[in-house]
Amino acid sequence: MTDHELATQLKELADAPAPPARIDIDRARRNGGRRRRARTTALVVGCAAVVTAAGLTAVSVFRPTPPPAPPAVLPTPAPVAPSPTDNPLVAKASFGWLPEEVTGIEYAAGGHGDTVLAIGRGDLPPMLWLSVYDREPAAPRDLSGTPKQVPQQVGGRAGHWITADANDPLNHGDSYLRWPTPDGRWAELHTYYLARPDLQQALVRVAGEVTFGPRAVPLPLHISSLPPAFHLSDAYTSRRPDQDGVPWKLVLQYSANGALVTINVAPPGSSRKDGLGVPRCVKKNGLEACVGIDKPQAAGVTEQELLSRITLLGPDESKWTTHVLSP
User: Fold this and answer.
1) Which is more confidently placed, 58 or 237?
2) Which residues contact 185 (CB under 8 A, 6 or more apart)?
3) What local confidence, expressed as pLDDT, does residue 257 receive?
4) Which domain holds residue 249?
5) At 175, is the secondary structure helix, strand, or coil?
6) What is the dihedral sign for C-alpha 154, 132, 239, 216?
7) Tens of pLDDT along 79-119?
8) Chain centre distance of CA 237
9) Could you tell me if residue 73 is inside a domain?
10) Mapping DSSP to helix (H, G, I), strand (E, B) and coil, where does residue 201 land?
11) Does one domain contain both 99 and 212?
């Protein structure tokens, strides 16, 4: 190729249009701007850190560094005292203040639940059921629709009402109030047939004055040498003179090798006896005790033999005992 031909081709190449650009200029400009702002921010933060460190160093020369704060001590649940073993009826909680409509306290323990019931008089007596659970249970089954929770402070603790109607925390008079206990469990106050203008305030006061911890309930009898096969099924007291014909009644039910053993104690004149079988009764010291066994052969003891092991303590409740069972 001659020098003239080379010069001609170079001129043609210079006059030809440039190839299309492979870089998005606008995108590159945006990315570059972000990188520049990031570098600027890092520089400012770095300078501030240096200045701060220098300031702290200067201050530390004249003022010693304070000792580290002690670690926060978190509150721990109060331990639950052991329940008595010589009493078949032990309450998990006790009422404090109660409205004047209440005329008696009933207790229950065993397979049908552990409860304390404050009850009034009449065909539909007001009832305030107090229960304690290891953890908050599911919503009550009898609430229609989707149960709602309405916050309520109880004794300085964050509890709540459970209701089918969020606009009515009292659930139309069939009220459920739940709150955490000091030992980490949950309490529930279920109330119905109690009608008063300050119902919500009254129930919050009742709940706020409940005390927790096992308490053996004084009972009107002493039982010696229960057979080893006896296992408590249910124990409960009743204070419903309008239904039972007596001011109070105690029922203890045991299972024994598939048999059901029922002990009823009340003042004479009770209109009904709980349990199965034909009871055998004895009256002594102002009280009546009745024992019914549906399958005596399986239980390994007769009604009369069990009655002979029962000592009645009389109708004076101040003389009742919390030490009911003995070997």
Assistant:
1) 237
2) 132, 133, 134, 135, 212
3) 95
4) 221-319
5) strand
6) negative
7) 555 667 899 999 999 999 999 999 999 999 998 889 999 99
8) 24
9) no
10) helix
11) yes
